Amino acid sequence: MLAEAGISSNGYWACPVNIGGLEQSCAARLIEGDLFDLLRPSTPDLTGAFQRHRERGALSYGRFHRVVERRVADITAFLRQVRLSIDTSDDLPRPPAPVNIRPLSSDSHNGARRPLLIQSGDRRYVFKFADPRPHQLLSAILDELSYGIGVDLRPPEVIPGRDHRWYAAPFLAPDDHGGDVRTFMLASGALTAVAYLLSMVDLHLENVVVFQGKPVIVDPECILHNFPPDDRSNRLLSTGLLSTNPRLSALRGGDVARQEFLQVGLSERADGGVDYLKPAGPFHNRFRLTDGRLADPADYHRDILDGFLAAFEWFMRYRSVAIDIVDQHVADDFRIRFLVRTTRLYTTAIHLLNAPISCGGTAWRRQVFERLRRAGHFLETVSPEIMAAEWADIESRDVPYFWIHAGAPIIHHRSGAKQALPYRWNARRQAISDIRSLSRSEVRAQTDVLSAFLDADLRAPS
């Protein structure tokens, strides 16, 4: 079976890809690593060693060879598009220097597309097939706000693709030792207000980094997320900078010195078994003091509130400027990622599909599908079309990816439109309305939410 699927005896794909300008071994490593990460069994083998997981279990049943063929075809097509995009960009590395790539994220979307680190010589970029305009909108707002409140919030600029389908950004090596801690906390408070005012979500622990002494959002693709228009009660706690569980928020979470964090993934035990959860890697969302400790935002309550209120005051005083920026940057085809379910549910389903099983593959797939169908989701109802798209992606070992366009409240997938949202206004019009209708009472209400969040005792049981 392994030979038929194209897997060598050590569990690696015999990579056939040859793409001009890309260093050959790195393309092979990307494909081999992708298949190993996505297709290896994901539950402990209590009697076997880790190496045997490369050769047994999910590799030996059912539809595996079709998944392999699809993954290799998708990754090869993706790399060719990356190469073409580099060739047509005036800003990215060009031949004759070989371009080396490696994946930066465990999440794969849209036919094996994932963020890549592209390196040519000493130049390093993060490359992603996504709309660059969310970055540009956030950057334009933060440029004006930085000038208005006297705190530097400006993120590094991205290199946009000409058709709004990809972008490259400078690779941000974590830099959490520089700058002044109180200025950082002021900036964090202001950034939190911006996240609320622009209806941002998914700003989790890995989407915020400390760079050059300030907080930087590295993935704003869920900006202008469509909430129910008249419900702002949980919007601040939905940003990810804040969360209903402060330990998991980007603002207060991520201190592994005080609390262990686990993530979905495999880790090998000393006895050769494999665990389903593994310790999370280091996070870079928190400011590090000179003694090595991470600064606790709860100790800088006043500074964070001052930054939060300063940003709100700027939006209220210069709401026409903010509206003009939204009007300029948010076209009808502006793409906003839409979260149907949490990524953890999707990755768990993928791991379950890869589990060594004693029953038939068809019966197990049906059980996994039923578990997903009954799992929680953010929509009031999930259409059969969305369910079918989710399952097709998961069977291809992709994390399902949906989006809406700012000009129409319709959920899209790479296979087409899937479900209309029951909202009267589109995301663009709603964003402008939210800024225009901002009031003192709303500022006071959200300030109370932030204060309670900062006062929460993280030592108490979760």
Question: What does this molecule look like?
Answer:
With 462 residues, the protein is an alpha+beta fold. It folds into three domains: 2-128, no CATH class; 133-165 and 172-338 and 427-455, Orthogonal Bundle (Phosphatidylinositol 3-kinase Catalytic Subunit, Chain A, Domain 5); 343-376 and 381-420, no CATH class. It is 37% helix and 13% strand. The chain has a five-stranded antiparallel beta sheet. A hairpin with a 5-residue loop joins strand 8 (262-268) and strand 9 (274-279). Helix 6 (301-317) crosses helix 7 (319-329). The chain starts with a helix and ends in a 7-residue tail after the last helix.
Mean pLDDT, to the nearest integer, reads: 82
Helicity, as a percent range: 25-40%
Distance between the termini: 47 Å
- The helix-and-strand class reads alpha+beta
